[in-house]
Amino acid sequence: MATKAPARVYLDYAASAPLRPAARARMMELLDIFGNPSSLHAEGQAARMALDDSRRTLAGALGVRAERIVFTSGGTEANNLALRGVMAVSSGKRLLVSGIEHDCVRATGKALGAEEIPVDKDGLVRLDWLRDELAKADVAMVSVMHANNENGVLQPVVEIARMCREFGVVCHSDAVQTVGHIPVDVDKVGADLVSFSAHKYGGPRGVGVLVLKPELEMVATMTGGAQERNRRAGTENVAAIGGAAVALQEAMLNMETERSRARQFGEQVCAAAEALGLDVVGKASPCVEHVVQVLTPKRGDDVVIGMDLKGVAISQGSACGSGKVKESHVLRAMGYSPDEAGRAVRLSWGWATTEAEIAAGVAALGAVVS
Ligand SMILES: Cc1ncc(COP(=O)(O)O)c(C=O)c1O
Questions:
Q1: pLDDT digits (tens, 9 = 90+) for 273-296
Q2: How many domains does the chain have?
């Protein structure tokens, strides 16, 4: 008997993933712990213990010491803190940011006068260009994401971090699309700062993490409190942080199974796209398994709306807030034309995605684009 198509199909995990039940259960427990973790009384200390416990759980899942973790309000804030916090002590030296970063890094970089590191047609950062710039000895910091959020292409961050060390330059990597999806050994990656966000791997929205090298010189950007070892002022969201920690623990425990399912789904989506004659972006490069970006013959926003009407949630290459066709800056950086960059859509999946959802998703895509 054929499996019944699900009522709604959610294929936008790269935007935000559903909450894992274990994370929800932990959050519900912690919501009743109402003390302020910075208060000295018993209620405050109960919250402090819960927070310390979550920090240890999360650090253990990542394989780093708990002191290296700074909790923020999300990936956006973690990236802002990384760039602004380091550049504030950079003595006028330059910031280099890749041309395919998420807007929270790009816009922050722009505000700090950053120059763009070019990428090649396969979406990979130009290491030759970067090496030449680093050799000029006037660069303070480099920021290159681990995996791109539109097409999933993995950047050679180990090599980039090694080059930065060679030239004494601080290296940051936005690992929002990799942590909880593929193994990320922060020490092996070797970047001085790595940021990520809980809602991309089944934790709650509104929790970000910045993992720092202990000796790193930087300043806080959110000031007015000694929380997070003076690196991020503001009362911590104890319940959400607890959910973030438990979700990461579960993601790491189940990673092999979840990854092999994600790989299988990716193969199915790519095969379907190719059968429809749609170009898969970044297919010549190493990629994370849970994201596929395709070029369609129609405007990306029309495809997203068409899919939504058929009950399938996907997204455009990048968010559109203006009503105009938004070209993906990532595709433009890779050398695609403005027209092509306005015709991209992204499908992404994760821990709760089923075979039936993928089948319904590709069937809807076929109907909408043809
Ligand atoms: C690569 C990347 N960096 C940063 C962010 C921002 O994270 P948050 O939504 O937690 O602020 C996102 C979210 O889409 C992302 O994909």
A1: 999 999 999 999 999 999 999 999
A2: 2
